[in-house]
Write a structure and sequence with these properties.
Elements: E1 3-7, E2 10-14, E3 21-25, E4 28-32, H1 34-38, H2 42-47, E5 60-61, H3 68-79, H4 91-100, H5 112-124, H6 128-137, H7 144-147, H8 150-168, H9 171-174, H10 179-182, H11 187-199, H12 204-218, H13 221-224, H14 236-244, H15 253-267, H16 278-290, H17 295-307, H18 314-317, E6 325-326, E7 329-330, H19 342-358, H20 364-381, H21 389-396, H22 408-420, H23 426-433, H24 443-450, H25 457-460, H26 462-477, H27 485-494, H28 497-503, H29 512-534, H30 547-563, H31 566-574, H32 579-585
Parallel strand pairs: 2-4, 3-5
Antiparallel strand pairs: 1-2, 3-4, 6-7
Length: about 575
């Protein structure tokens, strides 16, 4: 052969001897001589004596030929004695194609099988870069590359090099040098490398970081589309667009590939705590819901998140209700038309509590962090006009009573819900008010609650009532009028949601005993000053009355205020018993 030339979809060998064999691979026909191929290819030699299929214009058709026409062209050059250029890009297809054509030493010493095998063993597998290149080329060579152990050998080589280098390298500077290379591989090959690397003893943190790096590359929706909804002022169409944008239609190739990647990545996640971040797990959970992953996989992710929920943030938990779907079911009831999927967070919280109970030593810090996280989450979802009071209440009461050391965050969430749902009945308002414990409110929260007409505190929290009276008395002595609740509401409305979150639970001023002691002393001093101003003498025996009489006097006082009888209000106020005596008896 002098050379090869191509005309449209046919290749011709330019030679003084006419060609006597036509071979078709895919849509390309090669016009060649029999002898060069038969002398090196056992497969073609066996077919030599079969009758030609002249009606179709060719003698032989090679189905599913590894590497396609490009690889067969290289093999033809080798058969005709032309120079052969082996490199990491063509070595795997040539090795598979030579096996297909049975190019063994039986026909010629140094045949193509032995040449390609030697190049793989002594050149490719000794180099990290060449090995990853070859493994990448194997993605289109199934099942030949698997059967010839090319994939296994490449994966083992990469895993060993990654483990060896990470063991010797400075973890702070070079532990992730191989992440980019393996992230270019197909998911099944990536999984084999991770499995082999873990088997060799790689740290769970390294495995976890590599998995997170791979997910960032192959699951772009994780960062761009799944950050949750940050506002509640959307119109209906805008809201629907915000939730559904980027969602891949179910049943498409892209949808199936993405779901396969998610399922495989979850299956190889290290079980150790801290191997992957809670933020990453929640991103995976959101993505799994977008691509309609199985309920079992979603449940597994929820459990994993629950085990490290104290490391989550509010934005991490904002999971949009995609098409109002929950595990494939369409939810049409009004209470399920919320912007965020509350049920998922409810299940995650339940898993967290189960995990805490299973621990031999309860970690109080974890529950405290989760209680703050939950209260901040409640404050965000409380702005959803479609959130039912039942869902809000169930989620707010999910934690045990001792989980919260301060109820300021819960009070803020309840107040936000009441502002968003002004049409709530008095009964529902009282239900919400009973969720929090007034004795766990800070001084600032008590001050706000004492003037908050959205809360039916007169029916729920006598402690706040007492504090409210103290505030009114102080302002009366200073010649100031109580600030209208409307002004307080206006100030609240002007605060951005960001500022509200920053100021949430800034500090816990005192525990219950210290706070009540302060109220006791302050109230006693105010009462004495008030008595001097009014120039009235009180019956000292009245200070020995018990708590029940004090509580009753406050209710009588409110009724008199409503009737507008100013004289009776003054008499009852001056006859009020000492807070010090009530506290000491209680």
């Amino acid at each position: 052969a002098d050379s090869f030339e191509k005309k449209e979809h046919s290749w011709f060998v330019t030679s003084q001897i006419p060609t006597d064999l036509s071979i078709q691979i895919q849509d390309i026909t090669f016009n060649v001589h029999k002898y060069p191929l038969v002398s090196k290819c056992g497969y073609i030699g066996r077919l030599e004596h079969q009758p030609s299929i002249s009606n179709f214009g060719y003698d032989l058709k090679l189905e599913n030929f590894p590497g396609g026409p490009e690889t067969f062209e290289t093999i033809l050059k080798f058969c005709y004695g032309l120079p052969l250029d082996l490199n990491p890009n063509n070595i795997a297809p040539l090795r598979c194609a030579s096996e297909y054509l049975e190019m063994t030493e039986e026909f010629e010493d140094g045949n193509l099988i032995s040449k390609t095998e030697s190049f793989l063993t002594f050149v490719v597998l000794a180099s990290w870069k060449d090995t990853t290149t070859v493994l990448k080329s194997c993605e289109t060579l199934s099942p030949w590359a698997e059967n010839l152990q090319i994939v296994r050998r490449c994966c083992d080589s990469i895993a060993w090099k990654a483990f060896k280098e990470n063991t010797a390298a400075d973890a702070a500077n070079e532990e992730g040098w191989w992440f980019d290379d393996v992230a270019t591989l197909r998911i099944d090959h990536f999984m084999r490398i991770i499995t082999a690397t873990r088997a060799k003893g790689a740290k769970p943190e390294i495995i976890g970081k590599c998995i997170m790096h791979y997910a960032d590359k192959w699951l772009p929706l994780m960062d761009e589309q799944l950050e949750g909804l940050r506002g509640f002022g959307f119109g209906k169409n805008e809201l629907q667009f915000s939730i559904l944008r980027g969602r891949v239609e179910e049943g498409t190739i892209g949808h199936k590939e993405q779901r396969t990647i998610i399922e495989n990545l979850v299956s190889i996640l290290p079980p150790q705590d801290g191997a992957v971040s809670c933020k990453f797990l929640l991103k995976m959970l959101k993505t799994a819901m977008v691509y309609s992953a199985s309920p079992a996989l979603i449940s597994d992710l929820e459990k994993r998140v629950g085990m490290m929920l104290e490391n989550a943030t509010v934005n991490d938990l904002l999971i949009p209700n995609y098409k109002n779907e929950d595990h494939g079911r369409l939810l049409n009831s009004p209470e399920n038309c919320t912007m965020h999927n509350i049920d998922v967070v409810q299940r995650i919280l339940e898993y967290f509590l189960m995990h805490e109970q299973q621990q031999q030593q309860q970690q109080k810090t974890g529950k405290t962090n989760v209680s703050k996280l939950l209260d901040n989450y409640l404050a965000v979802i409380a702005r959803d006009p479609n959130l039912s009071i039942t869902k809000f209440q169930v989620l707010a009461e999910a934690l045990p009573g001792n989980a919260r050391t301060c109820d300021d965050g819960l009070y803020r969430a309840i107040d936000t819900y009441l502002k968003t749902h002004p049409s709530l009945s008095d009964h529902d308002r009282r239900k919400l008010c009973k969720i929090m414990n007034s004795e766990k409110l800070s001084l600032d929260a008590c001050t706000h609650a004492a003037q908050n007409d959205r809360l039916p505190i007169q029916n729920c929290h006598p402690g706040i009532v007492l504090f409210s009276e103290q505030v009114k008395m102080r302002m009366a002595m200073q010649g100031k009028k109580p600030e209208a609740q409307g002004n307080t509401s206006e100030q609240e409305e002007n605060q951005s949601s960001t500022n509200m979150e920053i100021k949430t639970l800034k500090e816990e001023l005192e525990n219950v005993k210290a706070k009540m002691a302060e109220l006791q002393n302050d109230y006693s001093e105010l009462q004495q000053e008030y008595e001097k101003l009014s120039n009235k003498h009180k019956n000292e025996s009245g200070w020995s009355l018990g708590w029940k009489k004090i509580k009753k006097s406050f209710y009588i006082k409110r009724e008199e205020e409503e009737t507008g009888d100013e004289q009776q209000r003054t008499n009852h106020t001056t006859s009020r018993v000492s807070l010090r005596s009530r506290l000491s008896m209680s």
